[in-house]
Specification:
Elements lengths: L1 E2 L47 E8 L5 E6 L5 E5 L4 E5 L6 E6 L11 E6 L3 H4 L1 E7 L4 E7 L14 E7 L10 E3 L5 E4 L18 E5 L16 E4 L4 E6 L5 E5 L6 E5 L25 E3 L6 E7 L2 E6 L5 E7 L2 E2 L4 E3 L7 E6 L4 E6 L15 E6 L1
Parallel strand pairs: 1-18
Antiparallel strand pairs: 2-26, 3-4, 4-5, 5-6, 7-8, 8-9, 9-10, 11-12, 12-13, 13-14, 15-16, 16-17, 17-18, 19-20, 20-21, 21-22, 21-23, 24-25, 25-26
Length: about 375
């Protein structure tokens, strides 16, 4: 297990950057275990990589959180505080508001958070969103109709899954459809530590659902949406080329984590933070002091996991060999763009990264918040 920093003796709570708020046979489920087909060895990326800022794609975004590319061009971006989704032209940076998601309660770390496209988006045009309401965190889906007037292009939300515990902090919020076409949902324990070890609660978990919001076939606990548990606040989900799932997690005072996710596994919170060397819990594959990370979004590209740091104000590269880090994590862009929230694979050696300086915890500069295009290796 590789650590990027020594223990921090006086770090604050690493919630969302620290400090005050600002059917037929089921498809196989991706797991953290596995190897290349026919026993072929997986290529191992070099210990040291590179990052080049190609351009600023867009500026002037308000509290951007979720980001997802459209297959026919354009980037959808969710505003946590405004509760709106805008379409960004990735060539010109022009922004068009699709509409406001009704029922969003933006308070503390809550609001309109992750977004994802239906695995059948080409035919159903459905956009999924995770948001904090007045009573809970929930997942909805909405029809996106670009033929309707600007600002009215989102249909009425259909609630897919509700009842995820909400709090002023630790609302999780990342959603993504996996290679198995199931919906994965990263949640937080809403400040109630006991929820993470309670398998009857959806707080402090990674959930795996059908697109309709039912517990997915093959889940580790019968009739349960819970895929893994013992999490504190999951805001990053990504799969590697072998369909293995990785997740980032906010720690409290000591260690933030990058985890390789196995179905049914217990990741230790609140009994363990960072490496515990306890057979009951899965240890992270990399860990950081909160001042260096406070991780949100992650993406896989060029054999590595790329992880956005909020309080850390940097982009971390974690080269992989299977489900382990093959070299020490490497930091890029440290302090150059402020807080970094979301990382999305843009194909090949490219990433899209959003800043998060207008969320009440950053120090906005001219142009914030923005989307960057990076070339990585």
């Amino acid at each position: 297990m590789l650590a990027a920093s020594a223990l921090l003796l006086a770090a604050g709570c690493s919630s969302d950057g620290g400090g005050a708020p600002d059917r037929a046979s089921p498809s196989p489920s991706p797991t953290a275990a596995g190897s290349s087909p026919a026993g072929q060895a997986e290529p191992t990326p070099p210990a040291k990589g590179t990052v080049t800022v190609v351009r600023t794609v867009a500026e002037g975004l308000n509290s951007p959180w979720g980001l997802v590319p459209l297959p026919d061009g354009g980037l959808l971006v969710a505003s946590r505080d405004e509760g709106t989704i805008v379409k960004v032209d990735e060539k010109t940076g022009a922004k068009t508001e699709l509409g406001e998601v009704p029922g969003v309660s933006a308070d503390g770390e809550g609001g309109l958070l992750g977004i994802a496209l239906s695995p059948d988006y080409a035919s159903d045009r459905m956009v999924y969103a995770y948001f904090t309401s007045a009573s809970d965190n929930r997942v909805v889906r909405m029809l996106y109709d670009p033929k309707r007037p600007v600002g009215e292009q989102l249909g009425a939300p259909d609630t897919v899954f509700r009842g995820i515990p909400k709090g002023f902090v630790h609302n999780g919020g990342r959603i993504a459809f996996g290679p198995d076409r199931m919906l994965y949902v990263g949640t937080g324990e809403s400040g109630d530590k006991g929820l993470s070890q309670d398998k009857e609660s959806t707080g402090g978990k990674i959930l795996r659902l059908t697109p309709e919001g039912e517990p997915a076939p093959g889940n580790p606990f019968p009739d349960s949406p819970v895929y893994s548990y013992g999490h504190r606040n999951v805001q990053g989900l990504a799969w590697d080329a072998e369909q293995r799932l990785f997740a980032s997690e906010f720690g409290q005072d000591t260690w933030d984590e990058l985890n390789a996710i196995a179905p049914g596994a217990n990741y230790g919170w609140p009994e363990a933070e960072g490496e515990a060397s306890d057979a009951r819990y899965r240890d992270p594959i990399a860990q950081w002091g909160p001042d260096e990370a406070s991780p949100s979004g992650i993406a896989h590209a060029e054999g590595s996991i790329w992880m956005a740091g909020l309080r850390g104000k940097r982009l971390w590269r974690v080269p992989l060999k299977g489900t382990e880090a093959s070299a020490a994590p490497q930091a890029f862009l440290t302090g150059e763009y402020g807080r970094l929230r979301t990382v999305v694979a843009a194909g090949g050696d490219r990433l899209w990264v959003t800043t998060s300086n207008t969320d009440g915890r950053g120090a906005p500069q001219g142009g914030d918040d923005r989307i960057l295009e990076l070339r990585v290796s």
